[in-house]
Specification:
The complex is a heterodimer of chains A (about 240) and B (about 90). Chain A has about 240 residues and is of the alpha/beta class. Chain A has a single domain (about 1-235), classed as Rossmann fold, CATH 3.40.50. Chain A has helices at about 15-25, 65-75, 85-95, 150-160, 220-235, and strands at about 1-5, 30-35, 45, 80-85, 100-105, 110-120, 135-140, 145-150, 165-170, 185-190, 195-200. A 9-stranded mixed sheet of chain A has the order 2-1-3-4-11-10-9-6-7, with helices on both faces. In chain A, strands 5-8 form a two-stranded antiparallel ribbon. In chain A, β3, α2 and β4 form a beta-alpha-beta unit. Chain A is globular and about 45 Å long. Chain B has a domain at about 5-20 and about 45-85: Phosphoribosylformylglycinamidine synthase subunit PurS (Mth169, Chain: A), CATH 3.30.1280. Chain B has 2 helices and 3 strands; from the N terminus they run βαβαβ. Chain B has a 3-stranded antiparallel sheet, with helices on one face. The longest helix of chain B is centred in the last third of the chain and has 13 residues, at about 60-75. The chains are: A alpha/beta (about 240), B alpha+beta (about 90). At the A-B interface, loops of A face α1 of B.
Chain lengths: ~240, ~90
């Protein structure tokens, strides 16, 4: 299985994602330049965190028009695996691959710390290795992570089980106190209806080795690899 | 002389939709109250863009600016816009 990490001007978690895949997950990985129009046969595309285009206008608003994003949109529409982390999530929202939008954190502060999240839907390519009710310790680092979606959109998300991760406390309980940024219903990560596109604000790549303070991020990468390798076996 | 091709200026005003939480607006309101201004009701933040452009004569300037607003300047999930075009 081969991963591709897109590098936008201003991406700053591209190397973290690259290293997590290469040295921790021991899978093939390649950087994909934002001006490229080819995904180089990657099986999963990672849109990393950072401040693409300086967060000008709105987070992710300009990266969305990068040449490579036209290709990512087609890849996603064809069922390809796409994961957007933090700024990558914001780009997926602006690109219309995921519903909703990000507002400034209610505290108006940049928040960089470990939080806990709980997988709400274990039946996705990104969460199948998580356990029910398990609190994953993964850091966030953002100013605009306050997820918003109008009421009818929220209903659709719930009806289709598209809420993949919610902020929770250390015990795995979803409480208002465990919500770091004001996100609607503690939403930390969502997927599209097809389940092949995920956006999440917490950084699994920054929690991929014990030396970093947590290895819980590997649940996300393990899930992706497991899903892909099993689906390949089925096809074979 | 074709006046349509003269440089025009568009002023675009973007605001958060009603009902969308505006943490900056809330914070500014609270600062104004701390400063002693009584009777502050609601503060909403927004953005303004001034775009100068030369219409190509093929499309109406209003149509082009409207498209720019929809495609790039605003996120329709959370924002509304209006614009004025002057010579």
């Amino acid at each position: 299985m081969k991963f591709g990490v897109i590098v936008f001007p201003g991406s700053n978690c591209d190397y973290d994602a690259y290293m997590a895949v290469k040295t921790v997950m021991q899978r093939e990985v390649e950087f994909l330049w934002h001006r490229d129009t080819s995904l180089h046969d990657c099986d999963c595309v990672i849109l990393p965190g950072g401040f693409s285009y300086g967060d000008y206008l709105r987070t992710g608003a300009i990266a969305r028009f990068s040449p490579i994003m036209q290709r990512v949109v087609r890849f996603a529409q064809d069922g390809g695996l796409v994961i957007g982390i933090c700024n990558g999530f914001q780009i997926l929202l602006e690109a219309g691959l995921l519903p909703g939008a990000m507002l400034k954190n209610t505290s108006l502060r940049f928040i960089c710390r470990f939080v806990h999240i709980r997988a709400e839907n274990l039946d996705t390519p990104f969460s199948n290795r998580c356990k029910k009710g398990q609190a994953l310790k993964i850091p966030i680092a953002h100013s605009d992570g306050n997820y918003f979606i109008p009421e009818d959109g929220l209903k659709k998300l719930k009806d289709n089980d598209q809420i993949v991760f919610r902020y929770c406390d250390v015990r795995g309980d979803v409480t208002p106190e465990a919500n770091p940024n004001g996100s609607l219903e503690n939403i930390a990560g969502i997927c599209n209806q097809g389940r092949n596109v995920l956006g999440m604000m917490p950084h699994p790549e920054r929690a991929s080795e014990s030396i970093l303070g947590s290895q819980d991020g590997t649940y996300v990468f393990d899930s992706i690899i497991d899903f892909f390798e099993k689906s390949k076996q089925t096809v074979a | 002389m074709n006046t349509e091709n003269k440089t025009k200026t568009a002023m675009v005003y973007v605001k958060l939709k009603d009902g969308v939480l505006d943490p900056q607006g809330v914070t500014i309101k609270s600062a104004l109250e701390n400063m002693g201004y009584d009777g502050i009701g609601d503060v909403r933040s927004g953005k303004t863009f001034r775009i100068t452009f030369s219409p190509d004569g093929k499309r109406k300037p209003e149509e082009v600016i409207d498209e720019i607003c929809r495609k790039l300047l605003t996120n329709p999930v959370i924002e509304n816009y209006r614009f004025e075009i002057s010579q």
